[in-house]
Amino acid sequence: MSLLRIYCSLRDTQQRCQWALLGDARQAVLGDGPLAQLPQRAERVQLVLPAAEVLITRARLPQSARRRAGSVLAYAVEDETLGDPDANQVSWLGSAADADVLAVADRQGLKAWHDALDAAGIHGYEVHCETLMLPWMAGEWSLAWDGREGFVRISELEGTATDCGDRGSPPLSLRLMLDEAKTRGEAPASIAVYATAPDSSPEIEAWQRALGVALRLAEPWDWRTAPPEAGISLAQERARWRLPSGTLARLRPAAWIVGAALAVHALALVVDWTRLAGEQRGLRARMESRFRAAFPEAVAVADPALQMRRKLAEARHAAGQPDSGDFLPMIMSVAAALKQVPPGGLRVASYESGRMTLELASVDDAGIRRIVARLLQSGLRVDQGAAAPASTRSGGGTVVITVRSS
Question: Could you give the domains of the chain?
Fold first, then answer.
């Protein structure tokens, strides 16, 4: 996997940068130049920030505030940053002892580099601090030194930049850090010194006497050639979803096919709707023709089915036979459906022109459903109205059911 590292200062203009391209089996390719000349096809990109521009500090946070970034965590380090909390980008790195470790960087500087890299074609990257890229072992501190200043990593998640020193005397900030660590019982057994520039190694004996701790010279170190797994990401800027160039041109034939399929489908729907409408008109014409053949004296035919039922009822009445819409057959079917209704459940029953209205009281929903099902099974048509307000006489709600012959 190819890895592109970009070293940038949040205080500089976003015009040039140092970079390194690492591969699995080839030597690292180093560069220094405009952002437009950055390699574009790296599978992984890391933005490396200088140690002096990232504050790593401890704070005590509630459980709900952990793993958040931005202004929520910025207020937790407001006393240490001594500035506007909204000007800082704060990330939660993890826990050390009984405290939480936070990383603080300049929000505007990160935003400026984000815009500059986006314009240069770099859309997704990790943000690293060189402090936490330095090799580290438990029980030992690691110091990167260029002959004048440097930075120290004191644990897996913590480290800071140092002030100035020289070949014979260590930086004062390093002495103060050791004194504070001794008071907490966290002093290291030794300090590994990594030279970051030629001929920058300090005088080990002089430094040991000044610091009161053993020092050892480690191999030279450079952020450019550090292993890909080195460091802890402070944040990850995800690439925004974009269509690759030429995608629209490749999708144009598929779009034409989809459009043609939709057009054919719409045409088929229109043809099917037209066919069904024609069948409906033909069926109505046949019904009207049969009605006129049976009753040629009819003047107008508005609803052949309804008029046929009414003529059939008149013929049955003329022959002395009952019709299903008469009161006696209908009340028998209704009585059979209401046989399980408790006494007083049927409040009102009215009949008019083949229609019977039932007003039921104190009947639950399950009982109403059973009554409607029995009425439908007996061949009647049922319309159930909404529940009426509670009656002052009975204290229960009422339901109105309208029954007609089919």
Answer: 135-220 (3.30.420), 284-321 (no CATH), 322-405 (3.30.1360.100)
